[in-house]
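Field log, afternoon session.

UNIT: design team B
ACTIVITY: writing a sequence onto a fixed backbone
BACKBONE:
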C-alpha cells in the first residue's frame, strides 16, 4: 500500500459481510477515511456508508463525514467534491494513506467518480477497489438470473417518461432501474398495465431491507431513494418478443 496513493474503496450494497477482503484491509490501514452523508430537502442527514463502516470495527477517529446535498442543482455538490478532492490530495502529499468510500461499486454511480479529474490534473496516484453493486445483490435476492447467454441488460438511473421505459423494455431482456423514487408516481401502474415480471428492492443488505415481486404490494410502498427494480421484458411488439 502506497502512502502517495488515494484509495477509492467500494463498500458493497449495504451488508457489511459483502465488502471485499481487499477493501476491508485498505480501510484498516488507512489514516483517514472520508464517507458521504446525504442531506435531503428537509435537512435530514443519513449515511448508508456509515451503516457499513460502523460494523467493521475500524478506528472511529479515522472516519470523516462529507455532507452531500441531494439536489438536482449540482453547483453545491460539485463544490463539495472539489473540496474533498483537494483535502485528499493534501493527505496523500503529506504521506498519509487516505480512502474515500462509496456504497456499491466504486466505478458505478460512485462519489469517487467525481474526484478523478482533480486527481489526474494534480498528477496524484489513485486506486479504485471494486465492490458489489446493489442490482447484483438484487439479482441474488430475487433468486433469478439477471441475464443468460446473449441477453442484453440496461441499467438506467433516470427516466423521462413511460414511453422511454417501454422503448428500453422492448430493446433489452432485462432493465435495471436505479433511483426508482423519481418515477414512483407511475411505475407500479406501468408494471401492472404491461403485466411485467419484476423484482423490487429497497435498502437491500441493511436491517431496513424490503423486497417483493407482487405488484399489489409494490403499489403500497413509498419507494425511497435507495431502491431498485429489475424488470424482465415480456412486452410483445409487432408480434414478436
Amino acid at each position: 500500500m502506497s502512502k502517495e496513493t488515494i484509495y477509492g474503496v467500494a463498500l458493497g450494497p449495504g451488508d457489511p459481510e459483502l465488502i471485499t477482503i481487499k477493501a476491508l484491509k485498505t480501510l484498516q490501514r488507512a489514516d483517514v477515511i472520508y464517507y458521504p452523508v446525504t442531506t435531503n430537502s428537509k435537512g435530514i442527514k443519513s449515511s448508508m456508508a456509515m451503516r457499513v463502516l460502523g460494523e467493521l470495527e475500524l478506528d472511529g477517529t479515522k472516519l470523516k463525514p462529507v455532507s452531500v446535498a441531494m439536489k438536482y442543482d449540482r453547483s453545491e455538490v460539485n463544490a463539495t467534491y472539489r473540496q474533498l478532492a483537494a483535502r485528499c490530495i493534501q493527505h496523500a502529499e503529506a504521506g498519509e494513506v487516505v480512502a474515500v468510500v462509496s456504497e456499491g461499486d466504486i466505478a458505478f454511480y460512485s462519489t469517487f467518480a467525481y474526484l478523478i479529474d482533480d486527481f489526474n490534473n494534480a498528477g496524484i496516484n489513485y486506486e479504485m477497489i471494486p465492490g458489489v453493486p446493489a442490482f447484483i445483490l438484487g439479482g441474488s435476492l430475487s433468486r433469478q438470473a439477471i441475464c443468460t447467454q446473449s441477453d442484453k441488460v440496461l441499467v438506467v438511473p433516470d427516466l423521462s417518461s413511460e414511453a422511454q421505459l417501454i422503448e428500453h423494455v422492448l430493446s433489452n431482456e432485462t432493465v435495471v432501474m436505479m433511483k426508482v423514487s423519481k418515477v414512483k408516481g407511475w411505475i407500479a401502474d406501468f408494471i401492472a398495465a404491461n403485466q411485467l415480471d419484476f423484482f423490487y428492492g429497497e435498502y437491500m443488505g441493511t436491517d431496513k431491507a424490503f423486497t417483493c415481486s407482487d405488484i399489489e404490494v409494490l403499489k403500497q410502498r413509498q419507494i425511497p431513494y435507495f431502491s431498485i427494480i429489475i424488470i424482465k421484458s415480456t412486452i410483445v411488439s409487432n408480434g414478436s418478443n
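LOG NOTE: DSSP finds eight helices and eleven strands in the chain.
NEXT ACTIVITY: expression trials, pending approval
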